[in-house]
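Each record in this resource describes a single protein on a pair of labelled lines. With that in mind, the following record should read easily:

===
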Amino acid sequence: MRVLGVDPGMTRCGIGVVDGAPGRPLSLVFVDVVRTPPNAEIGDRLVAQADAIAHAIATHRPDVVAVERVFSQHNVRTVMGTAQVAGLAIVAATRAGLPVVLHTPSEVKAAVTGSGTADKAQVGAMVTRLLRLTQLPKPADASDALALAICHVWRGTAQARRTAAVARMRA
């Protein structure tokens, strides 16, 4: 399975692609962090993020796109920008005919580190180890996007089987 993970953010948006299957080694396909200047017009910033996500989908042809589920923080302005970029990722995947899944930050941390309360350093260290990289992907947005993809490789297939089983039971 090939998963494109998106760690949405207005100033920095992490995009990572991972190949793998549960119980098998994972491999890094692509990682990038798309940056937009904070003083640029919002429309220009959103177009840059949308274009980068669509380009990554077209270039790397994932089977599914995993996006971080936006959660409420104290800084409403940050949440709004994050939610806008998450929406762009959802639209880009849907336009490409791909399924979209949302994972919470604690789900991703638990999948990658074993603890839903892990910090960014722990997530980055485990992403580096799991993908057998020689150095930590930087900035943290890169590691977070790869962690989203890894989370879905490991948890998404089980979730899909569970959903299908429930649908069969109801039919």
